[in-house]
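Input/output pair, single chain:
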Amino acid sequence: MKTLLIILFLTLTASAQTFTRVISLSPAITEIVYFTGNGEKLIADTRYCTIPEEAKKKEKIGGIINPDIEKIISLRPDLVIGMNGNPKSIIETLKKFDITVITFKIEKIEDIAKAIKEIGDTLSNNGNKKAKEFLKNYKQAEKKLSHCIKGKRILIIFSTNPIYTAGNQTFLGEIIEDAKAINIAGNGRYKTISPEFILKHKPDLTIFISMTKNNNSLLNFLKTKTIHISGKYLLKPGPYIIKGIKELEEKICQEN
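Output:
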C-alpha cells in the first residue's frame, strides 16, 4: 500500500518534478529503465547490471543485497529504484537521507508489465505504451515456443547441487504454462527437488538455465533429454526475457 501511494504521488506530480539522476538497485530494474527509453537518466547501477551493453558502462554501486550506501548518497540521485531482493534496511536507510525511493515486487509476467508501466510513466510518461509492447512481444514469443513444447512435460532447473527448480508461481513457470506445456514442478515458487522426484515424474524435456556449463553427470544419470540455455536473459524478471524465450524456442525446435 505504501509503495502504491508513492507511485501515485510520483504520477500526480510528474509535471512538477523531473527525475534525471536515477540509480537502479537491480538488473531487472536496469533493463526496464532502458526498455522505456530512459537509459540516459541512469547514473549508476549494480555490478550485475550487464544488459543492455550500455548498462556495463554505468557507475557501479555494489551488489543487489549489499549496495554501497555511502556511494549512492555521494552520487546525489533524485530517484532510487529497487525491487524484492534488496534488503529493506537498505531502502529505509536511503529514505532517511531524503532520497525518493520506489520499490517493486516482480515475480510474474504481470509484475514485469506493471513495473514497466509505472517506471515508464514516472520517468517519461510512456509506461502504458511500453507495457503493451512488452506483453505483445511476450505473447508472440510464447506462441512460437508453444509449437515446440505444447503438451510436453517440462522441468526447469538452474542448479544441480542442490537441484533447484521453478514452480508455477514464478515467471519461469509461467513461460512454460503460457506455452501450453506442463511444468512438472507444480505449484509454488522456487524450491529444491531430489533426483528421485525427476525419475518419478519423467519429464519429456529438462531445461537447464545457467550461466555455467551443464552438469552432464547428473542429467545423464537421470536419463532425461536436456538442453542448456544461458541464463543471460532468462534468469531476470525483466523485459529482456523475450530474447531468452526466443533462444529457448530456437534451441528446442532445432533438436525436435
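The first helix runs from residue 2 to 12. The chain has eleven helices and eleven strands.
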